[in-house]
Amino acid sequence: MTLAVALSRGLEGLEAPLITVEVHAANGLPGLTLVGLPDTEVREARDRVRAAILNSGFEFPNRRLTVNLAPADLPKESGRFDLPIALGILAASGQLPASRLAGYEFAGELSLSGELRPVRGALAMMLQASGDGRCFILPAASAAEASLCGQGNLLAARSLLEVCAHINGAQQLSAPETDAARREVVFPDLADVRGQHQARRALEIAAAGRHSLLLSGPPGTGKSMLASRLPGLLPPLSEEEARASAAILSLTSQFDPGRYGTRVYRQPHHTTSAAALVGGGNPPRPGEISLAHHGVLFLDELPEFDRKVLETLREPLESGRIHIARAGRQADFPAAFQLVAAMNPCPCGHLGQARCRCTPDQVARYRHKLSGPLLDRIDIFVDVPPLPATTLAATADGEDSATVRARVSRAWIGQQRRQGKANAHLAGREIDQFCALDDAGMRLLQQAAERLQLSARAWHRIQRLARTIADLAASETILPSHLREAIQYRRFTTDIHA
């Protein structure tokens, strides 16, 4: 047979569209031509595939070979098409039964010896392919990752020769091992933090309602220490959230099966570019905000980030998604991350102390690096003051993470039963329904809005925050005490732009 067809999967953001690999063997000058918008990595498959076929004991056909990757208008990238191209060539040259390729999908990069190397995005491809009823054959390392999908028919292979033996019926491939030991990730304990009771309380509220948080204070007061303890306070990921988080990490080959189901904690440096933070490139790749999907994104030294970089956070903080558009390429990535940021009160960090030499103009320029619209999208603002020597010398007496996490989990379960989502994600009529205030609470919020000059967005954020505080107190209604505590976490915005 001179024409053979093998199926594979591409990657377009989190989508994995079906790719048809057509191979035609014709008379003429020997050669291999790749068509269908292949990029450099795919065009280099000609040499990898030739060497892999020969070193696996097969004959590379001395004919004019044309390989078409359809659909032609979808750019193809990476080495995942090596395996289906090799199988198509063998089937077109009569060395494999072409009819037996129909029930399979293939993806894998070939080494020159014919061994299969892992490919990125295996979990994302399997999630897309599981509903089509075909068996997916992947390299062993990638198959172990894809097996976490828990759906579809999946087989693992270590070489081109093993795949060919399976197609010929001489040897059966086995399913990947799904009992890979998951390592228990131990997050830093909140009990290690001395003092800072208000910041600890704010951290608990942020964890209970998935609220964003900004910590402000001099260097060495424990801002980074507090932020690193937030993942240990959050409730466990649901199976759907765990798969979504793993699929995103799989796109950049950063997924570790041993950490499956663990919330991600990302901490990019303040020199990070906009493309690295929100995603970019051609083809578009997910950035830090997407890699922190269903996890925590910690931005230390927030004003040191480029202002244009910080402004890119505004849309995903509201929508939980990021849309990246390039010439001829578009991608949509989830970005439901929880933002925790830290900053100093002035460039030197010691505002109000004798050793501070910052002028008022320098302090104003430093603080105004954070725009009003960005700060308006942050729920909680907390000052983290220096600790007295007596507190530092004393034994830590605060609650540990397990105790706080138990309260957070109860509040979280209550939110899921009541509204099916975290309080921070309530919008529109949901706020009116689930965050309703009595007459006294409405008067209190109106007074705060006039005095603090709150925007409509800040008004709603206070309501959602008060709802979380009420949930932690196991209260069905939002009391004035809950509302007052929520309002005090907004005062920072009036000070920073004074």
- Uncertain residue segments: none
> How large, in whole angstroms, is the Cα Rg?
28 Å
Mean pLDDT: 91
State the share of residues found in helices, binned by percent. Answer: 25-40%
Class derived from helix and strand content: alpha/beta
Tally of alpha and pi helices: 22
Give the DSSP E fraction (strand runs of 2 or more residues).
15-25%
Can you tell me the overall shape? Answer: elongated
Number of strands: 18
Largest sheet: 5 strands, parallel
- Order the strands across the largest sheet as they lie in space: 11-14-17-10-18
Gap between N and C termini, in Å? 78 Å
Molecular structure report:
With 498 residues, the protein is of the alpha/beta class. The protein is built from 22 helices and 18 strands. The strands form six sheets. A five-stranded parallel beta sheet has the order 11-14-17-10-18. Helix 4 crosses helix 5, helix 7 packs parallel to helix 17 and helix 19 runs parallel beside helix 21. The mean pLDDT is 91.
Secondary-structure topology with pairs:
Elements: E1 3-9, E2 18-26, E3 31-35, H1 40-43, H2 45-55, E4 64-70, H3 82-92, E5 104-106, E6 109-110, E7 116-117, H4 122-129, E8 135-139, H5 140-146, E9 153-157, H6 160-168, H7 197-209, E10 213-216, H8 223-228, H9 239-251, E11 265-266, H10 274-278, E12 279-280, E13 285-286, H11 288-291, E14 296-299, H12 307-311, H13 314-319, E15 321-326, E16 329-334, E17 338-343, H14 360-367, H15 372-375, E18 380-383, H16 389-393, H17 401-419, H18 429-434, H19 439-452, H20 456-472, H21 480-488, H22 491-496
Parallel strand pairs: 3-4, 5-8, 8-9, 10-17, 10-18, 11-14, 14-17
Antiparallel strand pairs: 1-2, 2-4, 6-7, 12-13, 15-16
